[in-house]
Amino acid sequence: MVTQKHLIGIFTRDDQTFYDWLSRTLAAFPAVQDVRSVYIHNDRFVQFSEEVSKCTFAILYHTNNRGRINVCDVQDSLYDTELEYLYTIYGKNKVLVVIDDVEDSSFDMKTRILTQQPSISRWASDLFLFSNEEKNSLSQSFRIRPWAEHYQNTNATSSIQGKLGDMQRLIQGITDYTYEHVDYHTPPVCTKKTIAFLLAIVIIFAIIFPVSIYAQS
User: Fold this and answer.
1) Which residues are listed as membrane-spanning (predicted)?
2) How far apart are CA 98 and CA 101, in angstroms?
């Protein structure tokens, strides 16, 4: 049961056309009352803080179409002050970071970014990476159930469905659910175990069968 509906603010220095897909997806979540787009200006921190006060949950958005992933802690980083301020106002559990339009949206890349830019994990509850392939797997109709319902590409579909599901749970405030990471860009662990088991059987059979034939002869 959804106990609180959030007014989510998407805070960014990027044009709204880049994240329109995200706004529409978030608006369909049961725990979301509305989605506000907040453009961050370099010299208008007071205006930024006023916009923060109007929302109850924050998503810091950055697109890799700028050419770099420079959210914080690196040269020419864009959001050091803003991300810490969002944490101060909302608390870590109500702040997410989204990096969009990346070529590699795998868990390994996410880990690499968090290692190089540790303030993301310090000030936000999670980081989400989205590739163009994943976004293209969403149907043009953009019907949501509570996340996108119709897909085209199986691998990209599994990936974005899992990420949007995790995002929805965090927005709902479900932070104590049992979570086992699955990197949708690689074969599932169960598949790897099955392959290893079958390979072991083949090897054992290859060793025992000739020995038994030799013993009988």
Assistant:
1) 195-215
2) 10
The Cα-based distances of 192 to 45, 158, 187, 196 in angstroms read 50, 18, 7, 6
Rg over alpha carbons for the chain, rounded to the nearest Å, is: 22
Buried b (16+ CB within 10 A) or exposed e, 172-185: beeeeeeeeeebbb
Give me the half-sphere count of Cα atoms (radius 13 Å) on the Cβ side of residue 114. Answer: 19
Q: Dump pLDDT digits (tens) for 63-82.
A: 999 889 999 999 999 999 99
Distance of CA 198 to the CA centre of its chain: 34
Q: Does domain 6-184 have CATH number 3.40.50.10140?
A: yes
- In eight-state DSSP terms, residue 64 is G
| Alpha-carbon separation of residue 105 from 99, 159, 203 (angstroms) | 9, 9, 37
**For the chain, domain boundaries:** 6-184, 187-217
3-state secondary structure of 62: strand
Listed residue (111, 126, 204, 124) closest to 164, CA to CA: 126
CA distance 83 to 133: 27
Q: How much is the pTM?
A: 0.75
Confidence check: pLDDT of 13 > 70: yes
What 3-state DSSP class applies to 38?
strand
Contacts of residue 105, defined as CB under 8 A and 6 or more positions apart, other chains included, come to 129, 130, 131, 134, 159, 185
